[in-house]
Specification:
The protein is of the alpha+beta class. The chain is built from four helices and ten strands.
């Protein structure tokens, strides 16, 4: 079992048990099958990004809640040591650098899009902040296209309809910070 699968399995199980949810009830909340949820909790499968977003939205938690670990005072993260989460066709990869922590209220990722990749984001809590690292990405927010290149940044609310597109022939990557304000 991969390390990230162990973390996701433990965190999903802990959330479900702390909320006194059955797998059936969790399936109803998330739209993910009971069998898939059981496989994830046992660490027998590495869920796709889409599946984790469904679970996060159903439970009303941040995406990286499932990847959170106990954190030391100082933490160095190397991208080449991280196991990415990928979409179904392995063209959209997410590296969780700093998972969500309730005291900080944000999470930070590096996202990579292979050439020709289009990924339609899920509506979610919080605000997204994107800072381009390499390449060119077009981010569509409410059907308006924003072309970003290295050094550009964009901010929008996660509840907005949004998607990311790499129409170039080179790998594109960006830093993504998602901020979760206090609930009202």
């Amino acid at each position: 079992m991969d390390y990230i699968q162990q973390i996701i399995a433990k965190n999903l199980y802990d959330i479900r048990k702390n909320r006194n949810l059955t797998l059936d009830h969790l399936s109803e909340l998330t739209g993910v099958s009971k069998a898939m949820l059981a496989q994830i909790e046992k660490g027998k499968t590495n869920p796709t990004i889409t599946t984790l977003w469904k679970i996060a939205n159903g439970l009303k938690v941040s995406f990286s809640t499932f990847m959170k670990e106990e954190s030391p005072d100082v933490k160095k993260v190397s991208m080449n040591e991280l196991e990415p989460l990928m979409d179904e066709n392995s063209k959209y990869s997410v590296y969780s650098f700093f998972p969500y922590h309730h005291e900080k209220q944000f999470e930070i990722y590096v996202v990579e899009l292979e050439p020709g990749c289009s990924y339609e984001g899920r509506s979610h809590l919080g605000e997204e902040f994107i800072i381009m690292k390499d390449g060119t990405v077009t981010v569509n927010v409410h059907e308006k296209a924003h072309k970003l290149t290295s050094g550009d940044a964009l901010q929008f609310f996660g509840k907005s309809v949004h998607g990311y597109h790499n129409d170039s022939d080179k790998l594109a990557s960006f830093f993504m910070l998602i901020y979760y304000p206090d609930p009202e």
